[in-house]
Amino acid sequence: MREPAITLQQLRRNVSASFSLGPLSLEIPRGSVCALVGPNGAGKTTLLNLLIGTGAVDAGCASVLGEDVATAAVEIKRHTALVSPDISYHAWGSVGRAIDFVSGFYPDWDSQRCEQLLARLGLRRQERIDTLSFGARVKLSLVLALARDAQLLLLDEPSIGLDPLGRQQLFTELMAFMQNEAHTIVISSHQLAELERYADYVTILNQGQMVACGATPDLLSRYAELDVLLDRDEITDASGLHLLSWDGKRARVLLDRYALASTGSEDLGHLQIVGERSLTLEELLVALVKSNSGIRWRPRMGLT
Amino acid sequence: MPNSISLSLGPISAAVPGALYQQIVAAVKREVGAGRLAPGSALPSFRVLAEELLVSVITVKRAYEELEREGIIYRRQGLGTFVAEFGHDRTRAAHRAAAAQAITHAIQAGREAGMTDRELLQTFKDALKPSQSRDVSQRRAG
Fold first, then answer.
1. Does ipTM exceed 0.90?
2. Does the pLDDT value for residue A270 go beyond 80?
3. How far apart are alpha carbons B108 and A132 in whole angstroms?
4. Chain A 203-222, CB below 8 Å of chain B: which residues?
5. What's this model's pTM, rounded to 2 decimal places?
6. Which of A226, B5, B92, B125 is least crowded, fewest Cβ atoms below 10 Å from its Cβ?
């Protein structure tokens, strides 16, 4: 097997007294699109920054394209491109000057591809950067990333500020990039409906910890929401079942089929189930973060 | 392969019920069942179809795996993915089985609603009427 694009082993990064990321262990295979999702402050940008070589690893290790981020920052940057609305190109005045400046850093810059990208995304060289819309600035960032021959594309909230057409253009370009089996994309976003469609793998982060991780279709079929009738008020905890909401006789329960199967009792016959439905990625994220946060009052679940 | 696979199999949309990969499975079955994808014709690779339909590669992979399990398509290492010889019959048989099951469900629902067999039969006949009249007009035209 080819080595993974990204390997994290017990990676830890202490950002501040109140926030630290990890320990995280994770492998992202080459040739895949991996989504990093989670509430604000979950650690998505911290992780992306670590992968591109900004920010120190406090414990464990992270390797990108086979190189250790702590020792091979230059080599990694050579093959990695970052797309973020936070990157500012104001200093160069116009789109063309920003391109001429950035392209000089990269021997693998492909001018022809750059011009094609500009045309497809509707950007013109003479446009002034300070009059570009927010969406157009994201597109410029995308052009600067894709005009190189990068193996790994990191995108931090790329679809923010893009209109529906712009978002489709973005993902059309990303899927074209993915035609090369050696290419890998890691994308952080809150646009979960989009990621459900385009991401091969999803990693859900919350408060610096990994809450769930897996192939997108597997993750979506692993969980379901149950509508349950209770014949008594008292309920006790059970593995694989997380209470989402409850009003005495009726409850909504998040079913984790893997966790339930691992307890050896796959039978839900003791529950009076009114309905069962699958969840969108967005609903799953909310359900997992809520059941994971520990701040919710959790009554005992009477499953015995 | 049809000229545009994205037009014959797409769009894969969140507005359609069913997981994205199931939509691809259903679309391929529809095309195979109708004979628009003939036995032996090649299907695009995972990555090409993913780009065409704008879905993840893993979604296409899951769809192909399911279609292969059901014997609708087959894969040859290094050559690609093709419509199976009997894929057409299998899809049609599956569609007939699904229709028969839907009728069984309808009968069950009718019995639960206290309908007699006579009433059920009448309902079924009424429901058939629009397509019946289409048959008649076709015969006249012929």
1. no
2. no
3. 62
4. 215-217, 220-221
5. 0.84
6. B125
